[in-house]
Amino acid sequence: MQQVQQAEKTDQVRSYERSLARSAQSRTRADRPRVFTMEGRAWDLLDGVFAPVHSPSTRLGLEFLGLTADTAPAGTARGSFLEVGCGTGLIAVCAALHGHERVVAADINTAAVRNAELNIARHGVADRVRAVHSDLFSALPAGERFDTVFWSSNYVLAPAGYRYRHDHERAYVDPGYGTHRRFLAEVLDRTAPGGRALLHFSSRGDMGLLRHLAEETGTKLVELAATVIVEGDDPVSHYLLRITR
């Protein structure tokens, strides 16, 4: 009985319908802010863009990367940085504020690209951060590589045939893990020698399938950090994974 209950709980946590409902709620709730505060700074938030205040993933990403105000000194040179799925651009901007001298904030959602541009301007880092409309690496110049590539992924698995009803859903679910497979197959070609290809994943996703895709693409997943966050009534494990050959 206990095993059955645990399996049902796991299915609920991984449910793509629940994640789509979370997406709709975040996008339409009456208290959705136009400007929010994180890391002691104000950030613009446009309609249709993933809201960091409605999920712990952005804050966890900052912690995993050492980009919080109390974990890394500003002005420390750290090389180039690419954020895939940048949303508001918060992590990309913080990377620049912490010393990364060349930063790209990429997103497939055009509203997110505009949002990132607003926050790049708000925090005065346009000299070293650019926002691009890109499906993973598709819009980047051939051969452009980065010392750090980071993606806080849409780790919930949706059926392969699912079609997005709104771009906001792209931040929550990945049909058939098609985007995850492409990321694993392509990311090391976008990582500079000696650089790091990093993936923020969680137990809302299917780790077994992700590892299978890594094997298929000739890559390996190495866990660098893990933490458990209670989201609603669900304890959810979050992982920082490094992708290697």
UniProtKB/TrEMBL annotation:
The record ties this protein, via SUPFAM superfamilies, to:
S-adenosyl-L-methionine-dependent methyltransferases (SSF53335)
Q: Which UniProt keywords apply?
A: Methyltransferase, Transferase
UniProt GO MF annotations: methyltransferase activity
Any GO BP annotation: methylation
Determine the domain of life of the protein's source. Answer: Bacteria
Q: Where is this region: Disordered?
A: 1-33
Methyltransferase among the record's keywords?
yes
Stored CDD domains: AdoMet_MTases (cd02440)
Keyword Transferase listed? yes
Q: Where is the composition biased (Basic and acidic residues)?
A: 8-20
Q: Where is the Methyltransferase domain?
A: 82-154
InterPro entries named in the record:
Methyltransf_25, N5-glutamine_MTase, SAM-dependent_MTases_sf
PANTHER family with a match to the protein in the record: HEMK METHYLTRANSFERASE, MTRF1L RELEASE FACTOR GLUTAMINE METHYLTRANSFERASE
Name this protein carries in UniProt: Methyltransferase
Species of origin: Streptomyces cyaneogriseus subsp. noncyanogenus
